[in-house]
Amino acid sequence: MPLQSGARKDWNPHHGLLFVLSLFFLGSYCIVEFTRNQKKAHDLNRHLSVTAGAGSGKTAVLVHRYLKILLEKDLPPNQVVAITFTEKAAAELKQRIVNEVNARLQAEPHNTQLERIKTGMLSAQISTIHAFCARILREYPVEAGVDAGFRVLQGIQQRLILRETIDSALREIADRSDEDETREKLVNLLRIFGKTRLEQYLQELINQREVVDRLIDQLYCQTDSEVLDSWHKSVESQFPVKDWLRCLRIVLAEARGRDKAQVQELTDQIQPNMTVQDAAPFLTQIASLIITQGGTISRQKFLGSRVDTDAIEEEIDFLVRAAKYFRNYAILTSDNELLIRVTRPLIQVYDEVQRAYENRKRQAGQLDFDDLQIKVRDLLQHEASIREQLAERYPYIMVDEYQDTDHLQYEILRPLISNYKSGNLFIVGDQNQSIYRFRGADVQIFDQTRQDITEYQRALTKDFTWKGQILEASDSEKPGDLRLPENFRLLRNLVGFVNLVFESLMQGRNEFEVEYDPLVQGRTTDSLGNVELLIGSKEETVGESEPSADEHKLIVKRIQHLVGTDETVWKDEGDGEKLRPIRYGDIAILIRSRTRLPEIESALLRAEIPYKITGGIGFYQRQEIYDIGNYLQFLTNTDNDVALAGILRAPFFGISDVELYEIAQQSSKKPFWEKIQDYIDRTDQSSTFPIRDAIQILRSHLEICHRIPPSELIRKIVNDTGMVGVLPVGQSGEQRWANYEKLLGIAREFERLGITNLHDFLEQLNLLIEEEEREGQATTQLTADAVEIMTIHAAKGLEFPVIILPNLDRRATRYDQEPFIDDLLGIGFSPANPDKNYTESDPGATRLMRERVNNKRTAEEQRLFYVATTRARDRLILSGTLNEKGESKGWFEWLFNALGISGLPSEGELRYPTTISVLSGAEETTIPFNLLIRIIKSPNELDYDEAEEPTSSLASEFPAVQIDPLIPSSVGEIISVTELATYAHCPTRFYLQHRIQVPSSEPQSDEVAETIREDANRFLDSRVRETALNAGEVYREWHIHAEIDSHIVEGTADRLFKDSRGLWQIINYERDRINWEEIADPADYYRSQIELYALLVHRLYPEQQVIPVTVYVTDPATAYSAEIMREEFMDIESTWLERVKAIQEAVNVDAIGAGRFEKNRDHCPSCPYFVDGECMVAD
């Protein structure tokens, strides 16, 4: 099996130190030449709202603006706040700032201010909003009313605790006396909703409690009639009756359809001074007449099919939007009153459940993510002295990706700048790229903040300056509203295509849609770029002679054609962009969800195209996770026939369906597990060899499954069943192996939280499998050339030479499940009506909320489409399938409408006269050109000489596609470098630490955290730092493993890099607290680790003559290094193979008393199991 490598997610006590140390590694130095607009964004004398389009270089602006603040204002990094959307983005921003500091220090080696900044980056306030809030709460726990040592509750743990709390709170209310008011209301709610639905509603209300609490304070504090009236006013404010009449009269003057007369008659009955409630009967009827069921203007029945609408597009747009509301709003009925009557007791029960949830978290010293923000907001609102302290401490605040913020975060930011009266707020983002509504992001907050900034600074008249140069500003820019429209990613045709499509698609048709700002081409490469449409069809024929095209076949054929011919992309190799042939690794396939992922994978596998899933979704739905889950299910319940059949059919056991069917047909009514054992007992042994071995393995695991931790059980399952040989096989082997390791890490994390028995772990795993559809697959890093598959969300912020967008015809996922929690209209659902025999009601207000949700969803889908198209640098390939009628649907329909395409185009190329703005020097110029879009409808259009088809570099690493069942390899044991090094030190310690996992007396994580800064300072003073700083290509926390004989040895290199000699080497950091005076030879103590890591690197780079390895020990600050020659590895491998065999023999006996795990007393002083002068294991 080939050596494979990949990033590792697991955390260990010294990872915090590693992250800190990584900030000091030198990055490449380049002088950034900013555009005029980018220079304006560096202004420090006013609040700024910066709209930065895709590929606009905003990260470079953030880095340089951050340093400009530190240098010009002479501030330490801990006084400048930079908020990012993710922890990964925070780490990357921090790294880029440090790289820039290092680069400047290289040019100015004696600049003490830069040195102070570099050291101060250890405490830089660059983080997510949640991490920022957590720091404030830990500083002011008493004032905030939180436990000083609170833990953050998140993910599945939060959901599980919330569910348990809801269940127990409802039971507590139900157990009260009949006279209890809340109990009576709960009983009525249970009659209306049922228990399951009520629990789901309560869970959703608590998860959005910031919005719900605001609604309770602002809306539901009113009387029922006042709430009804507020709904009327909401609709009237968006679609006034007078605007209805104006647009109807203009459109009616042009209409020719048969329903025109009826619409005219209804319109004449509406008076301009009518209220919405008075006009609703007429408007509702008009709405049903002027738009189709699909929500477009009715040409056939109302407007007329031949009417020219160019002059009345604005009026038609208003009528379509208004009609959608009124068609679904209906005449107000008693159902709306029922909605309010049911909502009030629901809120009362919510209040009690919410208090129970808060009490449970308080008792456990926990806060969830919402608590972090809510408590900081309340702290800032109620504690004036703290608010003033923090506003003074943080005079500059920068927020990246501001389009993905929410109302609560804005409420935290405003007090820190004294409602714009102090400090400096800089927000940057792109409303067109707001795609995280499912996480609570509200794109409207960006616009609200921009308006607040410009309103507060409306009196500003100063232009901007840059290094003494005056930069003239427009009237909108002077009060702080800036734009970065230049795109330095897309080639000309791609810029023209994106502008053409999204100027048509994003027109701000409703309050949730963002109006599109055209991109300006900033990339100077002298090339046009390519846009292509791959059109599959479900019709029987495409034309007269060609068969219908399967979309996925078109995609794989196009990929083969791109790589197998002389087609090229531009690549920057450090000395400017140059043309080179397209490789598989240049291509990325972006998907919206995992629904069609198996089909895409299958097509790639059949075509033998190498691929990897990067940032992939659906981790818990992968087959390898299901297989292990089934195995654990069976171990906890041998009567689970489905789980048992699943694992027996899996590749690692490979029992045929025929044999399983034969067993199942036994007349006995026994469980399948007993039938199998009976079958073996009465069948000739030679004919049941595979199933006999499987049953023997299952029996052995049943004996131990409740005695060892889940992570150890999973490892044992993978080793014993031969799954260790199946997982790495085939083109997806790298991903399967990485997923297995991720599952191990998850199991270890649960064990750290106290979930150490199989039953509890399986309960958590089942919940994750059911609900965590968005969980990303494990990260892999193939050295080979491979197409990348990822979600559009995962691709945000990335770019690729070639982007393929498949399945554009797929309908978008709907978000219209009740309850709707609308920050304007309230809580919407359709309660069963007790007065009508509990039949479901249909409140108009709920319909209105559903329509708003659908509008939000549609607007975000448009933005998601925009994000997808703007990931491409050189080539954009869009594909979809027409339905049986030859119609386009979903995003494909948007695309066809924007391009004016109807049905399957007969042409092979479409041409569009287009004009774009191009950045030329410091000025923009306009360029007219013909945008060409290639149409590919048949694989026959992509034929080429098969002999030219490239052979993937994966071919030498992975076997060909497996058609027959996979046969496990001979791999025996998976064992880590840490385990082997521990065994070399002391077999008894190995047994205690890695086999039965006895807790040690080592420092806890909070103790470790206190020493990180001290350890980092030691590193900065060490000679190892110079080696690290001079490194070129670097990989941090890099997981590597190799097959040694029939076993897999794995480890994580803290830092794998190419040194100044061009040699790959490793630096590992250790935080061992050891009494070195009692260790005879400290260098020998780390010899085992050095040898093993050198062996793994040797397998990765076998041509390298020498492998340097360094172990840096932080206390005392000492480095132990060795350079292992290539000719030494044969002896090293032989030595360690013998130790692995010795471990196997000892584990099989599994008894210290038998003398298999000996003690090495020379290492007792360094052992965590050496307590009070004695080993924990008696002699």
Report on the structure:
It contains 44 helices and 37 strands. It is of the alpha/beta class and 1179 residues long. It folds into five domains: 30-144 and 383-464 and 474-484, P-loop containing nucleotide triphosphate hydrolases (Rossmann fold), CATH 3.40.50; 151-364, no CATH class; 493-538 and 547-592 and 609-615 and 803-812 and 864-936, no CATH class; 619-771, PCRA, domain 4, CATH 1.10.486; 974-1175, Lambda Exonuclease, Chain A. The strands form ten sheets. Strands 12-13-28-29-14-27-22-19-21-20 form a ten-stranded mixed beta sheet. Strand 17 (568-572) and strand 18 form a beta hairpin. Helix 4 runs antiparallel to helix 5 (112-120), helix 13 crosses helix 17 and helix 19 (369-382) packs parallel to helix 21 (407-416). The model is unreliable at 1-30, 540-548, 947-971, 1002-1010 and 1150-1155 (pLDDT under 50).
